[in-house]
Amino acid sequence: MPVTDHPHLSVIVPFYNEEQNIRRMHAAIVDAITPLGVPFEMVLVNDGSRDRTLEIAIEVAKADPRVRVVNFRRNYGQTPAMAAGIEHARGK
Q1: Between vectors from CA 24 to CA 49 and to CA 13, what angle results, nearest 5°?
Q2: Can you tell me whether residue 31 is helix, strand or coil?
């Protein structure tokens, strides 16, 4: 699926200390949405993780231009993380 500046769908995923799960989550989302043929993006929100979550999220974003990363310097919780993801989303 080509990358677009105007995706139809934005998938927002907040993470907190989830270094083991980011790549698997990315793959699962890609596998679920790609067959739909809908241009999409992923907004990964690092909610102040203290492990390698941010580092791995950035690696995923470098490998897949549909992925963008929002980073919180400290943990604010799921609701603010989702709100930040929505604010940065470009999907319809």
Answers
A1: 50
A2: helix
For the chain, give the number of residues. 92
Say what angle helices 22-33 and 53-63 make with each other, to 10 degrees. Answer: 40
pLDDT in tens, 65-80: 999 999 999 988 898 8
Compute the Cα dihedral for 42, 46, 47, 52 and give only its sign: positive
- Cβ atoms of 15 and 46 within 8 Å: the answer is yes
Structure pTM?
0.89
Nearest alpha-carbon partner for 26 in 62, 57, 51, 71: 57
CA dihedral 55, 58, 64, 66 (to 10 degrees): 140
